[in-house]
Structures are given as C-alpha cells and as structure tokens.
Design brief:
Largest sheet: 2 strands, antiparallel
Distance between the termini: 148 Å
CATH class of the largest domain: Mainly Alpha
CATH topology of the largest domain: Triger factor/SurA peptide-binding fold
Number of strands: 2
Structural class: mainly alpha
Radius of gyration: 48 Å
Helix content: 55-70%
CATH superfamily of the largest domain: Porin chaperone SurA, peptide-binding domain
Strand order of the largest sheet: 1-2
CATH architecture of the largest domain: Orthogonal Bundle
Shape: elongated
Number of helices: 7
Number of domains: 2
C-alpha cells in the first residue's frame, strides 16, 4: 500500500513591516490628532470672539449715535449762526443777509476796516498804548455832555444800532490818531481867542470863561484832527501795500 503523503499546508507569509513604517504611521496619526485639535481650538476662538466683536460694534454704533445727537443739539442751540429768520417755515440764511449788506455797505465797511488796521499798525510801530483810564475819562466826558443836552448815552447808542463796546473801540482808535498826530494838533491861545470871537453865539450865556475856552480848545482840536488826519491817511495808504480781493 502506497504510503500516504503527508499533507502540507502553506501558510500565508507574514507581512513584514519595518520599524520605520510603524513610526511614520504613528506620526501621521498624531498629526491628524493635532490638526483636529487645532481646528477645534480655532472654532472655539471664533465662537469666543463673535459675541465680543458684536459688543464692540454695538458700542461703536452707540457712540456714533450719541456724537451725532450731541452735534445736532449744538446746531439747534446755535441755529442763529446759520439761519437769520424763518418766514412761514422758509429759512433766510445769514449768508444771504451778509451778501445783501455787502451790496449796500460793503465798500464803506471794508474801507473802514482797512483804515482801522493801518492806524493800529502805526500805533504798534510807535509803541502807542491807550489805557483804560483814558477811555473811561473820554466816556465820562461824552456822557456829561449828552446829559447837559438832555440826552442819554445808552439810548443814543441804541438808536444808532451801536453797543458800548463799539463806542469804546472808536474812542481807542481816535486816541491813537490823536497821539500819532499830536505835533500837528497843538492849539494856541490866539486860536482860542479867535474861535471865541467868531463863534460867540455857539456858547451858553451862563457858561464860565474857562468852560468856554475848554470847549473852544476841544472844538479847534477836532477840526485840526479832521483836516490833518485825511492828509496823513492818504499818505499812509499810498505807502502801504494794500491788496483788495473783493470789489464793490
């Protein structure tokens, strides 16, 4: 009897994996875990920053609204700076008023400002300063003269559309001119005698001689001031560099 062959079974060869492959696989797994964790952290950061950013936006909007509200309220309080009047809800702007005034009195107003500027520049060059005491003394003189004529200074200023500050400014300018032209405004005794003789009817009969002389001196000085000032101003304008950018 033939001998039975011993059955042999072939085993599948073992899959050989190198150490390097196992290490690489482990690294890939760790990388995936790390990436997952990073994504999770990014999501958490986004979710955390979302309400915070919304709060910042809300605060900024509130601040802008408050700022606009405050600006609007200031505009309302100072509406007179932009609107001169309302006629049946139709505004008349201050710009239109100024434009109309410039058409009517622009040239004279500008000439007056140019003259005042030239005078004050000359005062600065010559170190001329008008004290408050000088201004107050002139105001008292004007006030007393008006009272003697039965007039009131405040009422007279109101009728002329002026304020006391405007009068004070005029007094300062006039005092500067008087000091600038002081050498040309001297009044002699002969000037006073001649004036008293030529203007007897201009004085109050009850006035004392010294009062008449003082009034005559003041009047003569004013007349000289008017004449000398026009000549002086014309010469000063001719020497100055004045450029006009508006013509009326």
């Amino acid at each position: 009897m033939a001998a039975k062959k011993k059955a042999t079974t072939k085993r599948a060869p073992k899959k050989i994996t190198s150490k390097r492959s196992r290490v690489s696989s482990k690294r890939n797994d760790d990388a995936m875990i790390d990436d997952t964790m990073l994504v999770t952290e990014e999501i958490d950061i986004v979710e955390y920053n979302q309400p915070r950013r919304s709060k910042l936006i809300n605060r900024r909007n509130i601040f802008i609204l408050l700022l606009l509200g405050s600006f609007g309220y200031l505009l309302y309080l100072n509406r007179g700076l932009f609107v001169a009047a309302m006629v049946n809800n139709q505004p008349i702007s201050r710009v239109s008023v100024i434009s109309e005034l410039e058409k009517r009195q622009g040239k004279s107003a500008l000439d007056s400002l140019v003259t005042e500027t030239l005078i004050m520049q000359e005062a600065q060059k010559n170190n001329i300063v008008i004290s408050s005491e000088e201004v107050d003394a002139e105001l008292n003189t004007i006030n007393e003269n008006l009272k003697a004529q039965g007039q009131d200074l405040d009422q007279l200023l109101s009728m002329q559309g002026m304020k006391k500050d405007d009068l004070v400014k005029q007094i300062r300018v006039q005092k500067v001119v008087e000091k600038l032209l002081s050498d040309k405004l001297a009044v002699s005794d002969e000037d006073i005698k001649k004036y008293l003789t030529d203007n007897k009817d201009a004085f109050n009969a009850d006035a004392k001689p010294e009062e008449k002389e003082e009034q005559a001196r003041t009047q003569i000085k004013q007349e000289k001031l008017g004449t000398e000032f026009q000549t002086w101003l014309a010469d000063l304008k001719a020497k100055s560099n004045i450029r006009y950018y508006v013509s009326y």
